[in-house]
Amino acid sequence: MAQVDGFLVPFGPVAEAQRTELIWTTAITMIAILPVLVGTPLILWWFRRGNTKATYRPQWHFDTKLEILMWGGPTLIIIALSIWLTQAVFRLDPYREIDAEMAQGMNFEITGAPVAIEVVGLDWKWLFIYPEEGIASVGEMVIPVGRPATMRLTTDTVMQSFMAPGLAGQIYTMAGMVTRLQMIAERPGTTVGENTQYNGTGFPAQRAPVRAVPPEDYARWLDNARDAPALDAETYAVLAHSGDVAKAREDLDRPGDGPLVFSLADPRLFDRIVARYRRGEPVEPEAQPGSPLYRPDRAPLPEVSR
Amino acid sequence: MIDLFGRLEWQELKLLEFFHDPSIDTAVASGAAWMTVVAAIAVIAWITWARRWAWLWNDWLTSVDHKKIGIMYMVIGFVMMARGVFEGVVMRAHQTTALDGGVLSNEHWAELFSTHGTVMIFFVAMPFITGFMNYLIPLQIGARDMAFPVLNQISLGLTATGAALTMISLVVGAFETGGWTAYPPFTGADFDPGPGPDYWVWAIALSGFGSMFSGLNFAVTIYKMRAPGMHFLRMPVFTWTALCTSILLVFALPPLTVACLMQALDRLAGFHFFTNDLGGNMMNYANLFWMFGHPEVYILVLPAYGIFSELTSMFAAKRLYGYTSLVIATMSISVISFCVWLHHFFTMGNSATINAAFGIATGIIAIPTGVKVYVWMATLWGGRIRFTAPMVYMTGFFILFVIGGLSGIILANPAINWQVHNTQFIVAHFHNVLLPGLIFGIFAGVHIWFPKAFGFRLDERAGKITAWLWIVGFCFTFLPLYFLGLMGYPRRSAAFDNPEFLPYMIVCMLGALMLMAAFAGLFVTLWVSIRKRDELAVPLGDPWDGRTLEWATSAPPPPWNFAMIPHIGERDAFAREKADGRPYVTPEYYEDVHLPPNTSAGLIAMVATTAFGFAMTWWIWWLAVASVLGFILWYVVHSFREHPEVTIPAVEVERHHAAWVEAATLNEGVTRDDETNSRNRGRAATDMVVAS
Amino acid sequence: MSDQQTNMHPGLNLGYVGGGKHEESKVFGFWVFLMSDLVTFGLVFAIFGTMRNATAGGPGAHEVTELRSIAIQTGLLLLSSFAFSWASLAMKYEAGRWRFLIWFSVAATSGLGFLIFELLDFHHLIEIGAVPQRSGYLSAFWSLVGLHGLHVAGGLLWIGVLTLQILKFGLTDTIKSRITRLGLYWHFLDIVWIGIFSLVFLAGVA
């Protein structure tokens, strides 16, 4: 896989802002910490028992000015950090869609309409559904540079956490629930869409490249995917079976290696996956992908009305 | 027909795994199982050979003396720590081979990080702090025992149950694989029907009851049994931290118990608290777990702060700076620690307002923590510092703990947290606060109070080398993980695909070896010290020129601690007596001392609950029912019996006390220059000049 | 020490046992335990609160609430607490062991009655398919009500054991102290029941 350096080498404004947060938080906190790092060795050395020049003050136990400094210093730092933090949380809230206002505030450019992406965490691969483009991809996410990616996420197994460090932070995915995440790339690049929440033996394999590409490449990638075999409920049931991308290729009889693309037969697949757990009927282990007892033929997805 | 063994079958025995399917992986698994069994047999054999059963039974297992119970907690802690450290080293070894693979199977790797975390938090850190509180609280407040000595023993029994169940899981079946947090639904019956999560649930729930009762016991002891004159603001700082920890234990353990029992109902009875379907909601588990989990961090670290407070003033030979500030800071930390739990899952899709609120609350808790560090620095200022082994730990703690504090502040910012949550950054952070913050404090404390408990000091040189090994080993092992985390390497991952990570892994491995050497160093120190025990003996009980009441007893103290309950006139009572030149007084008269009799309640509790936990794990229902009924029945019958107290006649108290006072008076005492040589017999010629 | 020491538990009317200091510690310790237990109940309440709508299409509050039975249970439990108070007074004013035991057994009987009605309710719930395995809501419902029921059952066992002890030893100081703690426990369960009664049943059907 290409160079992956996490959010220290960002290529999108969200991760970049997060890196800035890291640098500033560290710098401000240093005000409180440096005196300890420098002062402790000095105090230990100067006030060593052998040093007769040091003044011994065995009863000294209180000093009002020092107390004010001790309590006041950290308090001021925390107030500053809190203001800083609150702004950052609201600005980078993963539920807030990336819009022109945000672009202006954070000084980046939006060059096209948002791309809707629906992410399904499976054991041990990511399924990316592009409902508006009518395609789906397993083991790779591609976004066009300059267009915001508006993501809805869930899982069809245990809890997972999706993170693409070069572009944005992470968010948990939980069965029967939908969480959200936003990202945008300023320039082409690759990061890794990784699961950070342990979900079984295949956990280390659940790493999908997230590529930001120029619009032309993106269009070509979409076209390529539209020609691929269809992803319908039956294919999905096989795909959802525990295993990495290579195993999915085997199960689906799609030789080769690397990420898989599909044309999307059912644009509401994501909602049907979420609805599986919200029907008011038990979902037996046989019907839960990720369970050792899972049987694809026993796991029908419910229909959803719009 | 009753199913005698539930779902337990012969192939669950890990001992045989290697012979069925030889590989490095099964060799490690079977090896660990054999080690456990052989070690258990060896200990039993040794006790039998040395004819120590009666001694073990009468003097230790059935004793309700808080000092002995405290020491037994420490023994549990060290035994379990051997396992935890070893697992850590195996994991680090695996990681050096984990570029696109690794020597261990992923399943086994998961079991390792899960048991390592569980063991280190619940069966190393918890017994350590409980042990210290047990040993020190009554001595520091001038009491003869805990408020509820029998309950104290039962708490010990329940802690032992948890430890025993995790050890049994090495031999029979397997432990869970979802980490020490054991998040469902991964640990739910749908995804892991095996015995692993059940072991976890029962080990944690049962030992959790023990911890809750310990907290209750300590709190009541401190509230009700202080010597006359010891106002709250005259208590030693360690006792203050112990009080706050006890209150936290009472209120923070219920969420854990509730989470465990709900998880058990989900798994055993098909309930839907945390399942994917039928309205289950795993977010409730995360909330419950961390409502316990965050106060737990402070449960562990507050007593260590107490130890650091005692030792700075002791080895700087001066009064503690800012006592009131420390007390206020400790109290604030305990209260705020209940208001920050959500920062463990900023990534769960909470609203921005909630994330910001909990981020700020987390920042606020750093204020009193920072104050504490400054207070300790001010305590060193103007002192005459002796650089003994505990001070080495203290130095390591100072420097490293603030780095942990920095990473804590970084994590408190949700915007950054979204990037480093669940990565190696977190692993680095909590090792950074728990190892220097808690474990260094414990080891420094062991060095300080070991002479009190056993009558001889620990060898200074070996102790210092060990301390440096801990510090350097820590830096090598855990600081690189910060960078791996920033580069996006998730925690709990058995393998990685980025070759750049490999050098970091190798550095970590070197560090892990140093930590293993450091752990061995503890036992080397002990061994050396036992061999030189005559030279290191400090029977007069005050080797460090101590300030608080526990130093005003012989080493080891008599079972009744104090010949007469002291009257306290001010803080640091013993230091004042020494400065005034009137320590070691003979009371005007002696009285009979009444002590609670030995009991086997704790052992009964341990046997019954271990049987229960094992039965619930393996679905051996008859045993579960029998153990519960047996325990209740025993307890009911027990409550009908009279339990006459053991009376120590006044003459006996007098004989012991007079002999000690006489020896102390005859010894002219050593100055601090002779603190670490054989002239130190435990009588301090004090440095401290008290301005009156 | 002198005999001047104040009796720290006037309500207990203990004989001279070191000023009742140790007994007072025990009662205080029991209060601490109750606080911890209250946190436990509080958490189960909270979980119930988050799961109120997690019925998953199964039976909800209206189906599981049988107000008539709940009213009877509430009455019985209140009666039980009331009787216990009379028992405590009988103990305090040394009205004799039998007067005490009569009130004590009234408390026990009505507590037992409560439990029987609760079990009948549970039986009914099983009949209509409102089992805890049906939904998150029902899991939380059964756990909360069942946890309280288990506490009551434990209290009944405690009453039984203490009755035997009173018959064997009489109302000694040790036993008086035990009765005091049992009383705290018993009234505490009443308070928890008021919570369940209003938040689970009344609010459920309101």
UniProtKB/TrEMBL annotation, chain A:
Cytochrome oxidase subunit II copper A binding domain segment(s): 112-224
Keywords for this protein: Cell membrane, Electron transport, Membrane, Transmembrane, Transmembrane helix, Transport
Stretches for region Disordered: 278-306
Database matches in PROSITE patterns: COX2_CUA
Subcellular location: Cell membrane
InterPro entries: CcO_II, CcO_II-like_C, Cupredoxin, CuRO_UO_II, Cyt_c_oxidase_su2_TM_sf
Molecular functions (GO terms): copper ion binding; cytochrome-c oxidase activity
Major localisation: membrane
Membrane-spanning segments: 22-47, 68-90
Source taxon at top rank: Bacteria
Membrane topology label: Multi-pass membrane protein
Annotated family: Belongs to the cytochrome c oxidase subunit 2 family.
Identification of the protein by name: Cytochrome o ubiquinol oxidase subunit 2
Species of provenance: Allosediminivita pacifica
UniProtKB/TrEMBL annotation, chain B:
InterPro entries for this protein: Cyt_c_oxase-like_su1_dom, Cyt_c_oxase-like_su1_sf, Cyt_C_Oxase_1
Keyword Transport set for record: yes
Record-linked PANTHER family: CYTOCHROME BO(3) UBIQUINOL OXIDASE SUBUNIT 1, CYTOCHROME C OXIDASE SUBUNIT 1
Keyword Transmembrane: yes
Keywords tagged on the record: Copper, Electron transport, Heme, Iron, Membrane, Metal-binding, Respiratory chain, Transmembrane, Transmembrane helix, Transport
TM ranges: 27-49, 70-93, 113-136, 156-175, 199-225, 237-265, 285-308, 320-344, 356-379, 391-413, 433-455, 467-489, 501-528, 618-637
Name of the protein described by the UniProt record: Cytochrome o ubiquinol oxidase subunit 1
Region feature Disordered, mapped onto this chain: 671-692
Record-level GO BP terms: aerobic respiration; electron transport coupled proton transport; respiratory electron transport chain
UniProt source species: Allosediminivita pacifica
Domain Cytochrome oxidase subunit I profile: 49-569
MF terms (GO), sorted A to Z: cytochrome bo3 ubiquinol oxidase activity; cytochrome-c oxidase activity; heme binding; metal ion binding
GO cellular component: plasma membrane
From TrEMBL, chain C:
Heme-copper oxidase subunit III family profile domain span: 28-205
GO MF assignments: cytochrome-c oxidase activity
Transmembrane stretches, start-end: 28-50, 70-89, 101-120, 140-164, 184-205
A GO cellular component entry from the record: plasma membrane
Keywords assigned by UniProt, alphabetized: Cell membrane, Membrane, Transmembrane, Transmembrane helix
Membrane topology qualifier: Multi-pass membrane protein
Pfam family, one: COX3
Gene Ontology biological process terms, A to Z: aerobic electron transport chain
Superkingdom per UniProt: Bacteria
Gene3D superfamilies for this protein: Cytochrome c oxidase, subunit III, four-helix bundle
Compartments in which it is found: Cell membrane
Chief site of localization: membrane
Listed InterPro entries: Cyt_c/ubiquinol_Oxase_su3, Cyt_c_oxidase-like_su3, Cyt_c_oxidase_su3-like_sf, Cyt_c_oxidase_su3_a-hlx
SUPFAM superfamilies per the UniProt record, alphabetical: Cytochrome c oxidase subunit III-like (SSF81452)
Assembly notes: Heterooctamer of two A chains, two B chains, two C chains and two D chains.
Function: Cytochrome bo(3) ubiquinol terminal oxidase is the component of the aerobic respiratory chain of E.coli that predominates when cells are grown at high aeration. Has proton pump activity across the membrane in addition to electron transfer, pumping 2 protons/electron.
PANTHER family with a match to the protein in the record: CYTOCHROME BO(3) UBIQUINOL OXIDASE SUBUNIT 3, CYTOCHROME C OXIDASE SUBUNIT III
Similarity remark: Belongs to the cytochrome c oxidase subunit 3 family.
Name of the protein in question: Cytochrome bo(3) ubiquinol oxidase subunit 3
UniProt source species: Allosediminivita pacifica
